[in-house]
Design goal:
Blueprint: H1 2-35, E1 38-41, E2 47-49, E3 55-59, H2 66-69, E4 79-80, E5 94-103, E6 128-132, E7 139-145, E8 151-157, E9 173-177, E10 184-192, E11 201-205, H3 206-241, H4 244-263, H5 266-270, H6 276-302, H7 304-307, H8 309-329, H9 335-361, H10 365-388, H11 396-399, H12 401-464, H13 470-499, E12 507-510, H14 513-529, E13 532-537, E14 544-547, H15 549-565, E15 571-579, E16 586-594, H16 601-604, H17 616-622, H18 628-638, E17 643-648, E18 652-661, H19 671-674, E19 686-689, H20 693-706, E20 710-713, H21 716-725, E21 733-737, H22 742-755, E22 762-768, H23 772-781, E23 785-789, H24 793-805, H25 808-821, H26 826-837, H27 844-855, H28 859-873
Parallel strand pairs: 1-5, 13-15, 19-20, 19-21, 21-22, 22-23
Antiparallel strand pairs: 2-11, 3-4, 3-5, 5-10, 6-9, 6-11, 7-8, 7-10, 12-14, 15-16, 16-18, 17-18
Helix pairs in contact: 3-4, 3-12, 4-6, 4-12, 6-8, 6-9, 8-9, 9-10, 10-12, 12-13, 13-18, 14-15, 15-18, 22-23, 25-26, 25-28, 26-27, 27-28
Length: 889
């Protein structure tokens, strides 16, 4: 039994050994035939890519011979290539490639590239070409063996040899094949390179190759022709403008074009066919050249060295490293050195893209276009790499994507320079315009300053001589001084705003004071031009607001001054209103409308610029510094508001501004409450005699806010009719505008006085200050008082109350004064009655304060308050000597 087991074991071992021996013999004798399949190419095929049919062996020593690799037992096994274009990168090794080719006319087409096809009947016997489409291979040896393993063809070429030694004078490596139909050849290629080792191999029918080459030359010629056109065009511009940016651009385009010519083998073909060393080393010069030119160009466009100095230093450091590795590569062939050169080049491109992106984020429009210009060729190169890897198909788009990207890049770079020149031209024009405006401003300022100074000196000299007109001279000196001060203030304000030294100082103030402060400045100008100044108020406006009164008044004065300055007839309307706000703050809007000359649309764009008026000639015609609107706009912006205007040429303008005002600490009454008239003035209507519709409507609107009724009349006859018709509710106050003829106004007053019955009419004359002769005649005719023009809400209220003071109010206040002086307890009773009657008028609050003083027996304080109130109302009260026993303070 034991012997049987041993015998069976030996038998199994013998069978295993026999099987191993058989496998070894099979590999030794038939390994080549079984490990590589022939490429079956149809006889009517025009083009075939052989990349996926290749096998390769890496020869690290570079000593393998064709006999060794063609033997049944090569030194190392053959490896199948999996890429459409074999790519071994930077390598010091030599590579052997092989494929087996069979021209079989009867084989069905499966994987044939049909782009270049011709009718089959044209081909009885074709001439085939093998193309190695890589012009930078240092050495390439071509071997062709037939079915009997007999060497049929051999060629040794590459960039390590003069161009004249190539079998076909072509930029790539072309090997004619003498293979006939139905023959099978085994092709060996021994390749090495000092650059990235990429070996795209194609089989071409000769005529199809010629046609494809023509198409390729046309495409290359178009792209490179555009390069040449851009070079010539920008060279001409450079010779004219002598801008460094054009020199850097020309350098970049030139080096880029030379790089392409070198890479595609055109340089070796046309320019240096016998210079082997330059063909293998010149590319480093081109790459370093266009890298340096690109950095200089981008820096010139974006001023990287100023805005981002660290990035600029990094770019220069990487460029220096690139130049160093490239210089070493001229003398040392080391794959690590070559890889370092490529990595540094990629790093340089990455940093440049990051810098462009940073400037893009900063809002530089040139950086946006430059970023796009740099991304386009990167995308083209990426598409070419995907094509080489087989991810994308081989077609015209993927083949020329990088070249087209470079063409678009140089075009965009040229556009960037054109944009920069246009920007510089605009800045230059703006600077020249600013210089012209500054010169005009200085000339204007000399005129504006010299004129009032001359007036001051002249009238001072006249005043020193004495005479009856000294008072008039002094007034003119004051007016000229105010004008001079206004000019100087404009200049100082503009300087402070430009320097950022202006601050907004907010405090509580009476809103109506804005109207009051505007009146005295423009009384004379309005009277000279006979232009009306009217006010329109929103009754809901608070009487007190919180803000910078001085700055608001300054803006308002500038706009009113402009409105009067450019208006020869008509009216100027100032309106205040509330606008919606997104927070608790008050948004005040003020509008100034006029009926002046208006503004042309072409002049509107520069209206808020420094030293600008509607026209430079207007500076002389109308005067002014040309700084008012510019100062006002900046002040309004500092107060959280906006400023704008609407205008129609020949029909006037409307300027407006808004200001954000925080709420006051103490809740204030409304303007309607502040302006409310005493009840006595509510009992009978007030007649307004004025032939100016805007003026009549302005006074009527103000009276409506004050709670008084009003009637309108356009002529003296109409006024008399209304007075006679008002028997049930007689008119007690008549307002007459001075613009009526002097005779008509005075005749009307005299007529009223002669026809006056028991009801006495208080006649108030609306008259600008300075009309002394007219005022004297009006007084002689029986005018009760005057209201200075322009009329403001507070001045109208005060004048109406003063007119009432000549009657009942005057009597009541006079009686109260007597009781206070006597320190009588009846003073408290009378003031209680008065405060109750005036509950809704402006007298209510002063009377309440006076009542508190009387209750505290502080009669001296109460008397002082009463006299102040009477003075405000324009009432003259008789005074007696105070009593000896004073229980007041």
């Amino acid at each position: 039994m034991h012997k049987t087991i041993i015998k069976q074991t030996r038998l199994v071992k013998a069978k295993i050994c026999s099987l191993l021996l058989l496998l070894t013999i099979s590999y030794t004798c038939f390994g080549l035939d079984s490990s590589i399949e022939p490429v079956n190419v149809l006889a009517d095929t025009s083009h075939y890519s052989l990349g996926l049919h290749l096998q390769y062996i890496e020869d690290t020593s570079g000593q393998l011979s064709v006999e060794e690799v063609n033997s049944d037992t090569p030194p190392s096994p053959w490896q199948n290539n999996t890429l459409h274009e074999p790519n071994f990168g930077y390598s010091a090794s030599t590579y052997w490639l092989r494929f087996r080719l069979n021209i079989a006319p009867s084989i069905t087409r499966t994987t044939v590239d049909t782009r270049y096809q011709f009718p089959a009947e044209r081909y009885n016997q074709k001439h085939w070409l093998l193309e190695v489409a890589r012009s930078t291979l240092f050495q390439i040896e071509f071997y062709a063996f037939d079915e009997n393993n007999t060497l049929q063809q051999y060629t040794h070429t590459g960039t390590g040899f003069p161009f004249s030694q190539r079998p076909v004078m072509h930029r790539n490596f072309i090997f004619p094949l003498a293979i006939e139909n139905s023959q099978t050849w085994t092709i060996y290629l021994r390749v090495s390179s000092q650059r990235p080792l990429t070996v795209p191999i194609h089989l071409w029918e000769e005529k199809a190759f010629d046609k494809a080459e023509q198409n390729q030359l046309i495409m290359r010629g178009l792209s490179w022709g555009i390069f040449g056109i851009m070079v010539i065009y920008n060279l001409c511009i450079f010779l004219l403008v002598r801008e460094k940016s054009y020199l850097y651009y020309l350098s970049y385009v030139g080096f880029t074009l030379l790089t392409l010519i070198h890479l595609h083998g055109m340089g070796y073909y046309y320019f240096w066919p016998e210079s082997v060393w330059w063909q293998n080393h010149g590319l480093y010069f081109w790459i370093i050249g266009f890298s340096a030119a690109s950095i200089l160009f981008v820096n010139e466009m974006l001023q990287i060295s100023q805005h981002n100095p660290r990035s600029y230093k990094a770019l220069k450091a990487v460029l220096a490293a690139l130049a160093l590795t490239g210089g070493l590569g001229l003398f040392i062939f080391n794959p690590y050195l070559k890889n370092a050169f490529s990595l540094i080049l990629v790093l340089l491109a990455l940093i440049l893209c990051l810098v462009l992106g940073w400037h893009w984020r900063q809002g530089n429009k040139l950086a946006r276009l430059l970023s796009i210009a740099w991304l386009i060729p990167f995308m083209g190169a990426f598409l070419y790499i995907l094509k080489a890897a087989g991810t994308l198909p081989h077609n015209e788009f993927t083949e020329y994507a990088y070249d087209v990207g470079l063409v678009l890049q140089v075009i965009l770079m040229s556009l960037v320079m054109a944009m920069r020149i246009n920007d510089e031209r605009r800045l230059k024009d703006k600077a020249e315009q600013s210089d012209r405006a500054s010169n005009a401003f200085l000339a204007n300022m000399s005129h504006e300053i010299r004129t009032p100074i001359n007036a001051i000196l002249g009238f001072t000299e006249l005043s020193l001589k004495g005479g009856q007109h000294v008072s008039e001279y002094l007034q003119k000196i004051e007016s000229a001084s105010q004008k001079l001060l206004s000019v100087i203030n404009d200049i100082l304000d503009f300087s402070e705003i430009t320097a950022g030294k202006v601050r907004i100082n907010a405090d509580d103030f009476e809103l109506l004071q804005l109207c009051e402060y505007a009146r005295p400045q423009f009384q004379q100008a309005l009277a000279n031009k006979k232009v009306g100044l009217n006010f329109k108020l929103d009754p809901k406006l608070p009487s007190r607001v919180h803000g910078d009164f001085n700055r608001l008044q300054q803006v308002l004065d500038h706009l009113i001054d402009n409105a009067i300055k450019f208006t020869d007839r008509g009216d100027v309307l100032i309106s205040f209103e509330l606008t919606p706000s997104n927070n608790k703050n008050l948004m005040l809007k003020c509008s100034i409308s006029d009926t002046g000359i208006g503004i042309a649309p072409a002049q509107a764009a520069s209206l808020f610029s420094h030293f600008e008026q509607v026209d430079n000639s207007f500076t002389r015609t109308y005067g002014g510094t040309g700084l008012g609107l510019s100062i006002s706009q900046k002040l309004v912006a500092m107060m959280g508001g906006k400023m704008g205007f609407e205008s129609q040429l020949g029909h006037g303008s409307r300027f407006w501004f808004s200001a954000e005002l925080p709420p006051t600490e103490i809740t204030s009454q409304s303007i309607a409450q502040q302006l409310c008239l005493p009840l006595e003035l509510h009992k009978s209507p007030i007649l307004i005699l004025d032939d100016n519709l805007a003026s009549r409507k302005n006074i009527q609107d103000l009276l409506d806010i004050m709670g008084a009724e009003s009637e309108l009349a356009e002529s003296p006859n109409e006024a008399l009719e209304r007075i006679h018709d008002s028997t049930k509710n007689p008119i007690k106050i008549l307002l007459i505008d001075w613009l009526f003829s002097e005779d008509s106004a005075c005749e009307l007053i005299e007529t009223l006085r002669t026809q006056e019955s028991e009801v006495k009419i208080n006649v108030l004359f609306l008259l600008p200050s300075g009309e002394k002769n007219l005022a004297k005649r009006a007084e002689a005719a029986g005018v009760n008082g005057f209201i200075a023009k322009p009329i403001t809400p507070l001045s109208l209220q005060k004048s109406l109350i003063a007119s009432l003071g000549q009657g009942e109010i005057a009597e009541q206040l006079g009686e109260l004064l007597s009781l206070i002086e006597c320190q009588s307890f009846q003073a408290k009773i009378l003031i209680d009655d008065l405060s109750l009657k005036q509950e809704h008028s402006t007298l209510h609050q002063p009377l309440l304060a006076m009542e508190q003083e009387i209750k505290g027996l502080r009669y001296t304080n109460a008397k002082k308050m009463l006299l102040d109130l009477a003075a405000q109302l324009g009432i003259r009260l008789p005074q007696t000597e105070p009593p000896a026993n004073n229980h007041g303070e």
